[in-house]
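Section handout, structural biology tutorial.
Before the tutorial, make sure you can parse a SMILES string by hand: atoms, branches in parentheses, ring closures as digits. In the record below the ligand is zinc ion, and the chain has 199 residues. In the tutorial you will relate the predicted structure tokens back to the input. Do not try to memorize them.
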Amino acid sequence: MVARDRSIENLIERLNRLPGIGPKTAERLAFHLLRIERAEALALSKAIEDVRAAVKTCSVCFNLDAQDPCGVCSDDSRDRTMLLVLEDPRELARFEDVGYRGLYHVLQGRMSQLENIGPDDLTIAPLLLRVKQAPPAEICLATNPDLEGEGTARVLAERLQPLGIKVTRLARGLPAGSSIAQVSSSILADAIEGRRTLS
Ligand SMILES: [Zn+2]
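Predicted structure of the complex:
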């Protein structure tokens, strides 16, 4: 058997590191990129380069934006008494759409025993530092209403409550096991409106 070029193996290996891409799919994508027009394939690598150059992680809230601090953090008209804690920057747009006008903190994931993700893998330490320096009146834990999101919210509540800040959770109206990215806008708006205090 003739060995494949090292560069092909390298591409397959890198594609395989992407979430949801197994070795078979990685191989199929790599050979697809070799088959299509050269310009088309290179446009993909250029798009990756461009997005990495244009989009930054906000050093305050860990949102993704063209500027650091991000548009939300640097907007003086935002309600700074309210902090909404999210798992993922993609969820931020959903809360903007339903009219939320406070601040955010993006955890960059959620705790997961299965995937070996602990509190130190998330932006919990910067969150604690941030709320000690500028305590909001309320922190709402808007992690997803599934097993891992609930577990993450529990750990956060344990660490935030000793700081004397009111800690709330989205209302139970969110169907258990659903995701913030997928629920309807009206359910999400109700979940913020009806948020409950954790004790
Ligand atoms: Zn920010």
